[in-house]
Amino acid sequence: MDSNSVLNIFREITTIPRESGHEEKMTAYLQKFASDHNLQCKTDSIGNVLITKEAAPGKEDVPTLVLQSHQDMVCEKTASSAHNFDRDPIRYEIRDGWMVALETTLGADDGIGIAASLAILESDLPTGRLECLFTISEETGMDGAMAIEEGFFTGKTLINLDSEDEGQMFIGCAGGVGVLAEFDYERTNPAMGQACLRLRLHNTLGGHSGDDINKGRINTVQQMARFLYPRMDSFHLMLLAGGGKHNAIARETEAIVLVAKDNAQSFINEFNQFAQTVAAEYHTTDPDLKWEASETVCSEKPVADEAKIRLISALVAVEHGVLAMSQDIPDLVETSTNLASVRMNRPGVIEVCTSQRSSVDSAKEFIADKVEACFRLAGARTVRTDPYPGWAPNVNSHILSVCVDSYRRLFGKDPEVKAIHAGLECGLFLEKFHDLDMISFGPTLRGVHAPGEKLDLESNEKFTKHLIDVVTSFR
Ligand SMILES: [Zn+2]
Questions:
Q1: What is the Cβ-side half-sphere exposure of residue 50, based on CA atoms within 13 angstroms?
Q2: Is 145 helix (H, G, I), strand (E, B) or coil?
Q3: How far, in Å, is the centroid of ligand 1 from the Cα of 455?
Q4: For the stretch 356-384, what's the b/e string if a residue is b when 16 or more beta carbons lie within 10 angstroms of its beta carbon?
Q5: How far is the CA of 51 from the CAs of 55, 195, 304, 447, in angstroms?
Q6: Could you give the C-alpha distances from 423 to 12, 88, 284, 419, 455, in angstroms and in order?
Q7: Is residue 193 a contact partner of residue 260, using CB atoms and an 8 Å limit?
């Protein structure tokens, strides 16, 4: 077996439709692969597949190793592409040492992980007992990993084959939770002689609330609240809306306020000045902030002042950004929180959405408590949403030392040992399989989740060599 065996299987996989939520054909392919190779195979009710291969002679005493990848792929194509992901094989070419998808995603995330597992299953490599796990719907919420049942696999050591940088070994990821706050409010009659102003902050970089939280980017929701807070007595609030997904940094926020007619122009001037100050503060990390302040027309009544004060105070007080860095892994964010959005879509209720992450579950609980406490002090109702566990890095892990020794032996240098401040399926496995020893690695991919996704073929050779060495030397 070599990297060509992996590539050949991957080529076959590129012909199989497998958008998240529609993995039936991929599942059937795996089941057929198992029966063609006389391997035990089981599928759970949600569609996770486990193919088992018994130990080679003389390897019966080696502990079972789990190789894990996900069946689904992100299906994105260029605007002009006529590609049909339900039917058409992925078209790609080999260019400058890369396998590049032409108009779509390639699906090397995580088709290459599947291919590597299958290549090992069909090889005659002298390995211990192997369990190859293929989960579903990783890309849309890790449904497969979340629903997996206790005992579905029995190995206590798991290699996740869903990482994107050859030469990097991942040994941890963040868990997450959300705090949703609801402020009740009434609308009241405004004083006479008011002007209605629309204020906007937008065009910032935003980004992912895990990967980008330490990059010093502007949170437009919090900055808008920062402008309004010291001026609480000089405006009525009509509308405050900003941010989007819970896992994105808020890139755009709008406020509509009523101010005394005489005061309108100076309020606009102050906003422009404020925005310039913010732009100056972030001139390196988020340099393209845009803002507008203009008169508009409003017909509704303003939010009662007591609710306005509670809301804006909370949006200024609540934490946003990095709370702690890892004590074991250099430059890894350990704990963070994202003030994601504020919405007034439902009558009488203002919703504020936040999300917290940490590789240390107890630290995740504490930051969620802090955020929740802040909103409760401000008289809001709160609920916790979608908790999922983290995977705390263990620098003394056995599989880590096996993988590092092997890499050193093969390539004469150390791999980088890292963790990420985002979710991986590994975190979810820990919920049901408490004493799992895990690691994640893979070949180099670029542009994943976007048309033109590509696989570095040389990195695939190194990855394959390394994986073969690890599965044969593991004990
Ligand atoms: Zn993936």
A1: 21
A2: helix
A3: 13
A4: bbbbbbebbbbbbeebbebbeebbbebee
A5: 13, 68, 61, 30
A6: 29, 31, 28, 10, 22
A7: yes
- Cβ partners under 8 Å of residue 164, min gap 6: 109, 442, 444, 445, 446, 448
CA of residue 161 to ligand 1 center, whole Å: 8
- Confidence tier at 119 by pLDDT (50, 70, 90): very high
Which residues neighbour ligand 1 (ion) by CB within 5 Å? 109-110, 162
- 3-173+391-473: CATH topology is Aminopeptidase (3.40.630)
Q: What CATH number labels 176-388? A: 3.30.70.360
Q: What is the pLDDT of residues 431-445, one digit of tens each?
A: 899 899 999 999 999
How close is the Cα of 424 to the center of ligand 1, in Å?
Answer: 9
| CB 462, CB 443: distance < 8 Å | yes
What is the residue-averaged pLDDT of the chain?
Answer: 95
10 Å Cβ neighbour count for 417? 20
Query: Measured in angstroms, how far is the CA atom of residue 192 from the centroid of ligand 1?
Result: 58
pTM score: 0.81
Q: List, in sequence order, every residue forming a beta bridge with 418; answer none if it has no partner.
A: 170
Catalytic residues: 72, 138
Q: What is the pLDDT of residues 157-208, one digit of tens each?
A: 999 999 999 999 999 999 999 999 999 999 998 777 899 999 999 999 998 8
Per-domain residue ranges of the chain: 3-173+391-473, 176-388
